[in-house]
Amino acid sequence: MALIKCPECNREISENALICPYCGIAIRGKFITCPECSRLVSINAKACPECGFPIKKELIRNSQNAEKANKLYATAQKFLKNQQEKEALSNIEEALQINPDESTFIALKQKIEAIIEKKLQSVEIFKDVQIAFEKGDLELSLSLVEKALQLYEDKEYVAFNEKLLVKKADTLKAEENYQTAKQAFEKDNFLRAYQTIKISCSLFVDNTLYLEFQKEIENRLSEQLYSQAKNSFEKKKYKDAVDKIAECLTYKPKVDVYIDLKERILSKMKRNKILKRVFIGVIVTVLLVIIVPRIVQTSNDKRAWNAAINENTVVAYNNYLRHYPKGIHFTQAKQERDSLITINNLELFPAVLNGKIGFVDKNWKVVIPGKYDLTYGFHENLAAVSLNGKNGFIDKHGHEVIPLRYGDAKDFQDGLAIVALHGKYGFIDKHGHEVTPIKYDYAYYFSDGLALVSLNNKYGFIDKQGHEVIPFKYDYAIDFQDGLACVGLNGKNGFIDKHGHEVIPLKYDRAGDFFDGLAAVSLNGKWGYIDKQGHEVIPLKYDNAYYFSDGLALVSLNNKYGFIDKQGHEVIPLKYDGALDNSFSDNSLYDGVHDSTYSFSDGLAAVSLNGKWGYIDQQGHEVIPLKYEQARDFQDGLAAVSINSKWGFIDKQGHEVIPLKYDYGGAFFDGLAGVTLNSKWGLIDKQGHEVIPFKDGYYVEYNSIGAGDFHDGLAWVELNGKFGIIDKKGNFMPNK
Fold first, then answer.
1. pTM of the full predicted structure?
2. Is the pLDDT assigned to residue 61 strictly greater than 70?
3. Residue 642, CB half-sphere, CA atoms under 13 Å: how many?
């Protein structure tokens, strides 16, 4: 310990003394030791009276050192809170170099060193965890990881512990289903046994015990179904027999005895069908022979009947019925009249007929002959049709109830249709009356009682009487949803109500519609969510944010994707490289376009990691392994996937129901999907049958399926360099 001289009695005392033990003068706080001659000098002195050293500068330097040491201490605490122990230790050691006797600094250093020691111990334990896990010792792995977490709560340990708990739960579930399957098997309930063992096999695809037991069940189940099919066949219950043998073949498709029984059943059914037709023919012949002598009509009856069928209207048939109540064609006339009355309830489909578009019923019977260039089917019992560039509407009788005079015509919705004349848009009713002026640059369908329209590059809203209830002042706008509409002005976005009040200020760079009560908004390149009161319920911190659906929304941060709930909790971690979602990610939002595609389709979402795609459920379980090069959303229960640049289709259990053999695979719409093979296009159904073949024959080869998707029975295609329309029979009509 260094000694200094008391300024009062000049005796040597400890440099840490508060008062002089000899004369009692106060030392600490009133004097400072001169660093040059070790004499105690008053803190108010400008220089040491003994040697002339500048005391004022020394006080400033000590203050600066103390401030620096305190900052290092605070920084060390922050590093420790963020589990950056090495950085924390470095800072506190630097602080101790400045002030080695500060007790709080010493205590913090000891705390950091203790944590580092525990962390090192936990690292060694975690190595043992991974070794135990690789050996399949799940219980030991769980025990060790809990021990590691007691020493040091590392995020990696926490994540691995959760993984182990899921693995344990899957193991218990698989074993439970295995035992249930065994019990069902022992009771000869093979179908129940098969359904439960499949769950175990899906959880552990490499478990030999489960797989072997599944094969044994399939053998017994197919034998049982074969026996039932054979019994039904012997009892001449052919429909039941063919259903049973077909189900049997799904388990054992290559067993000859099963195939032979199916062929015998089908042969018997075909023979019975022929006999039935012969019998009906005989009956019809007998009836005609009996009836023909009675078909003697008067000339007036014949003329009235011919006039009725030629006019083919309800009025004409009613005239015949009124004047000839006992006429030979009375019943037929009544049926024809009733048929015309009920035709509006008939479901009609567009079809290419003799190079033009007409309409057929579900049995492909022609109801309206082909004469139009384009249509998208009936909506509210009227169909918009086009001929030679002019558009109008027909009813289900084929009558042009609204003349073909418009440059554009959209389908009817809620009794109104959008039409265009001389490049301007407006609305008409089903009588062809203009309910709003045809004066707008563009018009959108009514939503929540108001329609979005544009005029002179500004957007506003009108009601169904054509009143402009919200002025044309916005640069862009989106339809009303749940009473609010997104609008933009001078590059900023907000929301208005149906009275035009800006209930959420126009302050965001971008904004989307409200879904599940929340809307995604962005400011300064970061996305978050607001509620209908404008509260930012989820902070604006993500790089991308998408619509909420079923309580979840896809978000991304630092090029990693995951899912959050409506409280902002990351229920599926942001660990994936990609996920399918086209909700809004480009400038389509500025055009008022809403794409209603969501990440989860049929309960599953396609995600990618390390260049491989698979599917997760809404709990984050990877229900279909991440093994595909590319993957699409599920549509109609199937999804297109590819491996080694070959495409096929899987179901929601991951079964490859259509082999991966195509060069490209699209999505299913109306039960059909566009595929390509050897640079040729065709269409397949959900069983993989080629509905429109790839090669020359009755149907032509398709070089490209344009939009490719069937809607209302039609799809756009390209054939030999010409674009046009095909129907589901493969009939082609070039676009003029």
1. 0.50
2. no
3. 15
